[in-house]
Specification:
The chain is an alpha/beta fold and 226 residues long. It is built from 8 helices and 14 strands.
């Protein structure tokens, strides 16, 4: 069951949206301000956010930008502003879709379902972690919209690290993942070299890496999206 976070300070509209999606089999979580929304997002694994722009404790657009610094969760913005510049600003802030009030709940439902379908299709072909994404169809690696050239071994290493982001991985686990279909083995020295090459492409300070961290005596951990 997919979970939708509804951040809307109009209680009547919030309850109406929640009722509509719960009737369709979704789980909904509601909040009426940004502080509460942040708490709900921490508490629940959320598949999509419906985000009103005008909130009692801040601008939803600012929170959208904040979310985009660490997450690619789909966001649909709701606003009473119908100017083209407002819509452009919302999309540039990181929203995936933009709906002006008043709107039909059936239209909102259709937009949500379309966005979730698109996200599901994409997720089968792309591994994401924060601003980084690995396209498993094209075997290409990106930081936001900029491609970072990688070798075949670096690709397999990144696929394993990103799939297990936030987990400490032993050298043995990583080495086992780097066997290819032809039986070509990667030894510990080659692993060390490839970690160093990736850090050279990703890290601002090679002496104090923040994206691929070494856990001494254990292995490595990908922190790129943390």
């Amino acid at each position: 069951m997919k979970t939708i976070l509804i951040l809307e300070d109009d209680d009547h509209l919030n309850r109406g949206i929640a009722f509509t999606f719960e009737k369709d089999g979704y789980h909904t979580v509601s909040a009426s301000n940004i502080k509460e929304g942040k708490r709900r997002l921490e508490q629940h694994k959320t598949d999509l956010i419906i985000l009103d722009l005008g909130l009692p404790d801040g601008n939803g657009m600012d929170w959208c930008k904040e979310i985009r610094t660490h997450s690619t969760i789909p966001i649909i913005m709701l606003t009473a502003c119908d100017l083209e510049t407002d819509e452009v600003s919302g999309l540039l802030a990181g929203a995936d879709d933009y709906i002006t009030k008043p709107f039909s709940l059936s239209v909102l439902r259709a937009r949500v379902e379309a966005l979730l379908r698109r996200t599901e299709v994409e997720s089968r072909h792309v591994i994401r972690s924060g601003k980084y994404r690995l396209d498993t169809d094209l075997c290409k690696f990106f930081c936001e919209d900029e491609e970072i050239p990688i070798s075949a071994t670096e690709y397999r290493l990144l696929a394993f690290l990103l799939t297990n982001a936030g987990q400490v991985l032993s050298k043995e686990q990583i080495l086992a993942s780097l066997w290819d279909n032809e039986g070509h083995f990667v030894d510990e020295n080659t692993l060390r070299v490839n970690i160093s090459r990736l850090r050279a492409k990703l890290e601002e300070d090679l002496k104090s890496p923040r994206i691929i961290k070494t856990i001494h005596g254990m292995g490595y951990i990908w922190m790129g999206g943390m």
